[in-house]
């Protein structure tokens, strides 16, 4: 349920409503808009209704949020889009964001090379995994803390904020020390303990859709982060499992406009993991931008032939600037504002 306060409601009235909600054992999420403040109330529906919050001083009206995802729902923000800001770079609403970098952090030289190239081309954030979710336990699992140190160095050197994956709650402190955005990978989309920790960190979260998750599952996962008071969630469509085997995953681009009806959160697309092939990354990125995506996250590598993981899908770093120019022209056609490098 959502309590919409009157425009002239005082802070004391807002606090009094939030306190009543909490005293009744429910959660109150206060969101202050330009004109009015809205309090999201999460708790047992009947019990919350019986509180008669619409009669409290300063309350304009109370709306039931019918979706199971409450804080993520479009209704909760009354149509307003969430813009997530990461050190001055924005994603969501009119803002298109490009995140690029290697699949995994391999070495200082290749990470710094990639970081400089994508920064100079105009990418806003650097991606790179220090902890890698690999299908095989015998495959390279990432450099761990050494990889995190290299990411910190790359940020220091290029100024690009860092997106890196948190796979295990035991690594929360190490990852949150370095990450400007915590990535929750597809395989962990429903790891509720991890989502809660990521929510508590207060750091923006990039939440990737699970391999066989519905859009509602994805939004319910986002809800775990939001309910911790962390409003900075970016959703990512990265391809789902279908019967098709001609490419790695099926990129569900319908998810972009449909998610935007369902939620106020920004939606970006990862064409690299869906395609599994470099030559498909540009067309799928253009299609994502045309479908209204708020950004893309793509893998790039200076020498993809020698990449430790996901080389076949990595864009060649030396072709990245050209890729980005083409992508930006479609994003502009879709009405997005592009950000200066
Ligand atoms: C990744 O982005 O590095 C990754 C492993 O992606 P996903 O979780 O979508 O497979
Ligand atoms: Mn990868």
What are the SSEs and their pairings?
Layout: E1 2-5, H1 11-23, E2 27-32, E3 37-42, H2 45-49, E4 59-63, E5 84-86, E6 89-91, E7 97-101, H3 108-121, E8 125-127, H4 145-158, E9 162-165, H5 172-178, E10 181-184, H6 192-201, E11 205-208, H7 215-226, E12 233-237, H8 255-262, E13 267-269, H9 271-275, H10 278-290, E14 295-301, E15 315-316, H11 320-333
Parallel strand pairs: 7-8, 7-14, 8-9, 9-10, 10-11, 11-12, 12-13, 14-15
Antiparallel strand pairs: 1-3, 1-4, 2-3, 5-6
Helix pairs in contact: 3-4, 3-11, 6-7, 10-11
Tell me the β content.
Answer: 15-25%
| Spans of at least 5 consecutive residues with low confidence | none
**Small-molecule components bound:** phosphoenolpyruvate, manganese (II) ion
* Helicity, as a percent range: 25-40%
The strands making up the biggest β-sheet line up spatially as 13-12-11-10-9-8-7-14-15
Largest sheet descriptor: 9 strands, parallel
**Mean pLDDT across every amino acid position:** 96
Query: How big is the Rg?
Result: 21 Å
Oligomeric state as shown: single chain
Note the total helix count. 11
Q: What's the order of the H and E elements?
A: EHEEHEEEEHEHEHEHEHEHEHHEEH
Shape category: elongated
Strand pairing plus helix content: what structural class? alpha/beta
Distance between the first and last residues' Cα: 41 Å
Number of strands: 15
């Amino acid at each position: 349920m959502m309590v919409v306060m009157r425009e002239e409601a005082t802070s004391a009235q807002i606090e009094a409503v939030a306190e009543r909600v909490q005293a009744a054992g429910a959660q109150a999420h206060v969101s202050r808009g330009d004109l009015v403040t809205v309090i999201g109330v999460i708790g047992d529906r009947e019990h919350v209704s019986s509180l008669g919050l619409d009669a409290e001083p300063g309350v304009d009206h109370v709306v039931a949020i019918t979706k199971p995802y409450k804080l993520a729902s479009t209704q909760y923000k009354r149509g307003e889009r969430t813009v997530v800001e990461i050190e001055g770079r924005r994603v969501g609403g009119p803002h298109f964001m490009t995140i690029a970098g290697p699949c995994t952090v391999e070495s200082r030289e290749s990470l710094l090379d990639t970081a400089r190239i994508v920064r100079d081309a105009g990418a806003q954030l650097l991606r790179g995994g220090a902890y890698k979710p690999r299908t095989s336990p015998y495959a390279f699992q990432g450099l761990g803390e050494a990889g995190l140190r290299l990411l910190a160095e790359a940020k220091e050197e290029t100024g690009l904020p860092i997106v890196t994956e948190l796979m295990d709650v035991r690594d929360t402190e190490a990852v949150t020390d370095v990450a400007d955005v915590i990535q929750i990978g597809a395989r962990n989309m429903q790891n509720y303990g991890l989502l809660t920790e990521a929510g508590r960190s207060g750091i923006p979260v990039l939440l990737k859709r699970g391999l066989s998750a519905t859009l509602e599952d994805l939004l319910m996962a986002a809800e775990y982060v939001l309910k911790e008071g962390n409003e900075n969630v970016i959703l990512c469509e990265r391809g789902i499992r279908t019967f098709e085997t001609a490419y790695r995953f099926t990129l569900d681009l319908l998810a972009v406009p449909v998610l935007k009806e369902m939620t106020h959160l920004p939606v970006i697309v990862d064409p690299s993991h869906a395609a599994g092939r470099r030559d498909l990354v540009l067309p799928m990125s253009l299609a994502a931008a045309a479908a209204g995506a708020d950004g893309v996250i793509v893998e790039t590598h200076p020498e993809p032939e020698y990449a430790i993981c996901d080389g076949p899908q990595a864009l060649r770093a030396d072709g990245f600037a050209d890729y980005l120019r083409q992508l930006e022209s479609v994003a502009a056609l879709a009405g997005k504002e592009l950000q200066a490098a």
